[in-house]
Task: structure prediction
Amino acid sequence: MIAITALRSLAFLCVFYGGSLLFVLTAIVAHWVVPRAVLPVATAWSRFHRRCARWLLGQKVRVEGELPEGQYLYILKHESMFETIDLLCLFDRPAIAAKRELLDIPLWGGLARDYGLLPVERSAGASALRALRASARKANAEGRPICLFPEGTRVSHGEAPPLRAGFAGLYVLLRLPVVPIAVDSGRLSPRGRFLKRPGIITYRIGETVPPGLDRKEAEARVHAAINALNAQP
Result:
């Protein structure tokens, strides 16, 4: 069984990353012709990723609940690379907060900037938060859904670290209702592990948190909602 899982994981590694290089090259060429062409190419890449996960790893996706329509701030659990790419299958042109160093990756980083990722520089303190707020405000004005991983980095399935300051800053600044989303991808694709197991990755849509709440209350509601799948095996 482990041998089969290893072969499937190796096949995913080769096909997905090999295909990703082709998507990057396609996006570069398309961007020279039509600057905004990065958006549909990125969406196609996300769908390619989901197909690779489904057919090579045996990982299916299940969404529990309904994603509301309109302008919201989406706050998600972060357990693996899976959801960072798969968000483009869930939302239309989402503006996703990502580590600043990812934007420095050759070729890919430039496309990420053109796409409109929201850079987060953890070590820059207050200045990083101001930059994140400015980028989020711009994305919100463009009508793009804003997605944030408030734990700041990937965590193992079952862990529930406190939310970082970025969530509270955006919650107060944007004055948008918040949709918390639990994800259990770490059960099948643990961070830092080569082996990825088959199964079902679940997104659970939590109860919407209205704007204007006390910071502690808003954080408590969001924290509980994004960790709603932790107790499940």
User: Anything to note?
Assistant: Strands lie at 59-64, 73-76, 95-99, 118-120, 146-148, 178-183, 199-205. The chain has a mean pLDDT of 89. Residues 59-226 form a domain with the Glycerol-3-phosphate (1)-acyltransferase fold (CATH 3.40.1130.10). The chain has one domain: 59-226.
